[in-house]
Amino acid sequence: MTVDDLIKAMTPEMYSNMKSALELSRWPDGRKMEKDQKPLCMEALIRYENIIDLPADQRIGYMEAACKSSKDNDTQTLVIK
Fold first, then answer.
1. What pTM does this model have?
2. Residues 41/28, Cβ–Cβ less than 8 Å
3. By C-alpha distance, which of 34, 64, 62 is closest to 46?
4. Integer Cα distance of 26 and 21 in angstroms
5. CB neighbours (10 Å) of residue 51?
6. Contact 21, 47 (CB under 8 A)
């Protein structure tokens, strides 16, 4: 079984538990999440979101303000003297 197979087998409940564990740095049973588990958990969640085609605004790391570009061009030129 590959990692992709495991991620495809994830249920919405498993996704929710992993997401909560990542946010709290604790597994549902109360154990502390190890430092090396965090990036693996994050990768699994991102892959799952991609597989189920979760809307961008519901995905991990989405920041609405950072995703919009300004229509006004308030560029100021820096002059070094």
1. 0.71
2. no
3. 62
4. 5
5. 12
6. no
CB under 8 Å to 17, separation ≥6 — which residues? 28
Lookup: tokens for 12: 């919405």
Q: Residue 45 and residue 7: Cα distance in Å, rounded?
A: 8
12-43 pLDDT per residue, tens: 999 999 999 999 999 999 999 999 999 999 99
**Hey, what are 46's tokens?**
């991102």
Instruction: Report the alpha-carbon distance of residue 71 to residue 58 in Å, rounded.
Output: 24
Burial of 47 (C-beta count, 10 Å sphere; 0-12/13-18/19+): middle
Name the more confident of 1 and 66. 1
Q: What Rg value do the Cα atoms of the chain yield, rounded?
A: 19
Rounded distance, CA 28 to CA 71, Å? 44
Q: Residues with Cβ < 8 Å from 46, sequence gap 6 or more?
A: 59, 60
